[in-house]
Structure formats: structure tokens, C-alpha cells
What does this fold into?
Amino acid sequence: RRIVETALEGVIGFDVQWSVIFANKQAYDMLGYSQSELIGRSLDDLLTDVDGSISRDIKEARQHGIGGTQELCLRTKGGTCIWVQASDSPVNAGGEFDGFYSLITDITARKLTEDALRRSEAKFRAVVENSNDEIVFTDAEARIVYRSPSATRISGFTDQERMWRVGFESVHPDELAEFQKMWKELLETPGGTKRGTYRLTH
It folds into this structure.
């Protein structure tokens, strides 16, 4: 019990009626409840599960002695959501299901970062795909891995003709050496930018 109470993660114990029978201080602090407020609260009270499907899946698995790890959004006392990674272990007494313990780690910061990244990527993609300019992404070998929708109209080449081809192939021979020099300098300075004006062949 001492190990559980001094663990860095939150620990919550549920009985066969899916009610909280134990929680350590870390769990109280994460969820914003006092001990008396959290004990007796049901699993469904804590889950932000609109249609109940998550709750049903958890209960069915634990009743059959199956543990598991999942990312869940738990409801705090204040009504906000915190994201946790929950690792559940069923308890059996005499071969019968007798509840389960859940080890929870707060991953809210990570989830918020992932969500912000997804929104940023979606915004960036929308800008790129609606641009009137030709935008091309390449890998470190200068092979084309992405062309914006306007690329075909501007260059005259379809995606089928240009994807995974080396981008240097489109540069005018008179300017190829200068372009390759710029490319080499870019590879040597990650995060850097270069500007240049070059003719491309059609």
C-alpha cells in the first residue's frame, strides 16, 4: 500500500459495481477531488463517454480478466477533461472477478501538443493546396515527394511524370550547377532558407 500511495502515477481501485474503493493522492490531485468525494464515485462518472461504448468495452474486458492500456479522457471535479494513459489490471478472488486497479498517467500536455500540431498541419496543407504558386517538397536526395495542385498547370508535367523524379531534372542546364550549389548549402544548414531565380524546362 505504501508503494501505491507514493507512486508518481495515480492509482484508482474499482469494485465489482464499478465504484471507486481506493485512490492515492496523485489520483485525487489529477482529478481535483478530495478522498471523500472520489470514493464511491462510479467509473461512468469519471469517463467523458457520450455513447457509453468505452465504458462497455472496459467493463466487458475486465470482467473476463483481460487487462489493457488505453488513452482516456477523464472528467475532473471542475468538469474539465484531462487525458490519461490508463493501465488496468483485473483482480480475481477465488476465480471470480473482484474489480480492477487502474494506473493513470496524465498525458494532457502531450495530447494538446498533438492536437495543435494536427491543426497547424491542416492549416499549412490548406494554404499549400490553394496556392496559385507551384510548391514542391523533396527528400534529401532531391526526389520529389509532393507537388501542389497548381504544379501541373505551371510546369506542364503531371504528378505521374514528376513524382519521385529528381528535381534537378527540370532545371535549365545553364543554371544547374548554381542550383545544385544552393541545394548543397541548404542540406548543410537545416532550417535555413535560400532564395534564387532559375529557369525550368518544360
Remarks:
- The radius of gyration is 28 Å.
- The longest strand covers residues 81-93.
